[in-house]
Amino acid sequence: MGGNNGTDGEKMNSIASRKDMTKVTFKLALPSIMEMLMQTLLGVADTAMVGTLGGVAIAAVGLSDNPLMVMMAFFAAISVGTTALVARFIGARNYKDAEDTIKQSLFISLFASVAFTAVMLVLSERITLWMGAEPDVLPYATQYLSIVLIGLPGMIITMIMSGALRGAGDTKT
To answer: Do 140 and 66 lie in a common domain?
Structure first.
């Protein structure tokens, strides 16, 4: 009696709505979880393949991955911001601002990724030396970094678009 803030029916509805919310949340999160799992598996597969080439090759990839991960973290922050803003605008049915946010994020990311790529291509040998490359690893690390950098703008645009789609509630595309 005392302390009972609702009827048994209201409590059952509350429990049911929590179960529904958990189900909806899991349904939305599952594609993102799978995406992250697949990226991790890709990294493991890359390491396994490069591992067959020897220690110098593994060192070259490891040295090259560090500056790339720093850049990816920068663009991941833009992607997360894009996700949050697009979700907010879509939720408010403000589709124009959602569209503008996506356009601005894509423009900034494309411009910045091309600029970073150009600078890093010019400085790739210095970057790998700064990361601690030994003389036998240096040419391989520089070459690997240069090859991966060429695809960076495409990877960044994909990351931003993925964030925009998540913000719009589309976690499957």
So the answer is: yes
